[in-house]
Amino acid sequence: MSITKAKKTELINAFKTSDADNGGSAASQVAVLTERIRNLTEHMKNNHKDEHSKRGLLLMVNRRKKLLAYIKRRNEKDYEELIKKLGLRK
Length: 90
What we know:
Blueprint: H1 5-15, H2 26-46, H3 51-74, H4 76-86
Helix pairs in contact: 1-2, 2-3, 3-4
């Protein structure tokens, strides 16, 4: 259900924006959130009555939505590349 440390490091390295980026950039945060959302979505398919996890899922989705809006506002080309790499939308 949770994301492993190795998987998180792998995602941060794949989506980092500079060499000094240790997961703080918006793109890295969106990538990690997307993986957590996918894991929790699978959990919710089997445990549809789990209201506490549902709330956490909604919070993560909203946080990702805000980060994506920020990226789009800053640089639309980077936004398009990110959603394509993550398989989100369009």
